[in-house]
Amino acid sequence: MPPSPAPSTHQFRSWSEKAERLTVALLVLFLLGGAAYSWRLGNTLRFLPDEREYLTLADNLVTYHRYTLDGATLTAYRPPGYVWFLTLLRAAGLRVWQLRLANFLLFVLTLWGLYRWLKRDRSPLAGAFAVWMASAYVVLFFTAGTLYPQTLAACLLLWSLYLLSAPSPQPARGIFAGALFGWTVLTVPLLGIVLPVALLWGGYFRLPWRRLVAFSLVSLLLVALWSARNSRVFGAFVFISTNSGENLLVGNNENATPNSGTTVDISTYRQTASALDEVSRDRYYRRQAWVYIRQHPLSALRLYLLKVLTYFHYRNNLVTTSETSTLRDVVMLLTYAPLLLLGAWRLVAAWRFPLRPLDWLWGGIYVASAFATALFFPRIRFRLPFDYFLISLDAAFLARWLEMKVR
After folding, report:
1. Which of 255, 333, 262 is nearest to 47 (CA)?
2. Looking at residue 7, what is its pLDDT?
3. What sign results for the dihedral spanned by CA atoms 325, 331, 337, 340?
4. What 3-state class would DSSP assign to 68?
5. Distance CA 177, CA 174 (A)
6. Out of 253, 328, 380, 401, which residue is the most buried by the measure of CB atoms under 10 Å away?
7. 385-405 in b/e burial notation, b at 16+ Cβ within 10 A?
8. Rounded average pLDDT per 10-residue block, the chain, 407 residues
9. Cα–Cα distance for residue pair 14/7, rounded to 1 Å
C-alpha cells in the first residue's frame, strides 16, 4: 500500500514556517552587515563623478535651496529622485557612511517587500526563496554600499507594483502606488518602461480599472511637475533630466561596442558640446546619435541586438579601473548565471507549469527592460532593479516545483 501524502504535506508546511523565521533572521543579519560595511568604507567617495554629483546636488539643496552643481547655476543634469532622498538625510546631518547605511535600510526594505509579495500571491516558501536568492546575488549588497540611485529605485518600484497588484479593490492603493512609481521614474527614468507593461498586464488580467487609472495619472503627474520645472528654468521642454542625450550617444556612435558603456571615446563630440549650454548640449548629443543611426542603419541595428544580448552579461567595462576585479567577475558569474538559467528553465517548463498572471508581469518586465536598455547602453547597475523580477519568477517556480514533488 503506498504511503499517505499527509506526512510529506505536514513536513512541507514545517519547512515553510522555518523558512519564514530564517528569512527574518537573514534580514536582520543583512542590516547589521550593511552597517559594518558602511562603517568600513567610511566617508570616501569611490565612484566618480556620479557619487560626487549626487551628493553635491543634495548638499546644495540643503545649503542654497537650489538644484545646482556649482551653487549658482540651476541644472537638470541628474534626475532628482535620489537627490531628494539624500537631501533629507544631509539636512539631518548624516555623513557619507550613514548615507550608505540608509541605502542598506532600503535594501532590507526591498527584500521584505519581495518576501511579502510572494508570500501573499504564492507561498511563504516562495517568499523565502526570493529573499535567499537576492541575498546570494551579492552585487545587490555591493551596490547598496554606493551612492547610486538603483537601490532606492528598486525599493520604490517593487513596493509600487506590490500595491498595484493587491487583490483588494481599494482605489487608494492605486494612488499610493502611483506616487511611489512616479518617484521611481524621477529616480531612474529608464524604469518608466514598466508603466506600459504594468498597464497591459493589469488590463489583460482585469485589475480594477480605477486603480490602473489612478496609478497612471498620479505617476505621470509627478513626472510632469518636474518636467514643468525644467521648462520654466530653461525655457525649453526637458523630460526629467539633460543627460539622456549623452547616454544615447554613448551607446550609439562609431566607437561604441556592445559592452563599452561609458568607457567609449566621444571626446570629439565633447569638444563641440563644451561651448553649448546644458539643454543645447543634450540636444546636440541626441542629434549626433540619431545621425549615426540614420547613416549606418545596419551597423546600428547589429549593435542594438548585441546590446540586448549584452544586457544579460555578468561583467562590464568600468571607467573606475580601481574597482575592476577578476574575483568580482567570477562571483558575478556564479551568482547571476544560476538565476538566468533557472528563469530560462521556467519558460521552457511552461508547458507543464503554465505561466500564472504574475509570471507574465515579472517576465514581461524583465524582457522589456533588455530591449529598452539597449537603446542606450547596458550596465549591470542599470539592470539591478529589474533583476528582482527575475528572482521573483525563479523563486515562485522553484517553490511550486518543490511543492509538487513533496505532495
Report:
1. 262
2. 46
3. negative
4. strand
5. 5
6. 253
7. bbbbbbbbbbbbbbbbebbee
8. 49 67 90 95 91 97 96 96 98 97 97 96 92 95 96 98 86 92 98 97 91 95 97 95 96 94 92 95 97 97 97 76 71 95 93 93 97 96 97 95 76
9. 10
Exposed e or buried b per residue across 201-214, where buried means at least 16 C-beta atoms within 10 angstroms of its C-beta: bbeeeebbeebbeb
Alpha helices by DSSP H, listed for 206-296, are 209-234, 244-251, 267-273, 278-295
CB 157, CB 191: distance < 8 Å: yes
Asked if 245 contacts 83 with a C-beta cutoff of 8 angstroms, the reply is: no
CA distance 312 to 383: 9
Predicted confidence at residue 15, as pLDDT, reads 65
Query: 36: which residues sit within 8 A by CB, 6+ positions away?
Result: none
CB of 43 closer than 8 Å to CB of 96:
yes
**Residue 312 burial by Cβ neighbours in a 10 Å radius (0-12, 13-18, 19+):** middle
Give the per-residue pLDDT at 22: 86
pLDDT of residue 13: 62
The alpha carbon of residue 188 and the mean position of all alpha carbons in its chain are separated, in whole angstroms, by 8
49 upstream amide cis, omega within 30 of 0: yes
pTM of structure: 0.93
Q: In the chain, where are the structural domains located? A: 6-232+313-406
For residue 1, the model assigns a pLDDT of 40
Rounded Cα–Cα distance for residues 73 and 71 (Å):
6
Distance CA(265)–CA(27), nearest Å, equals 42
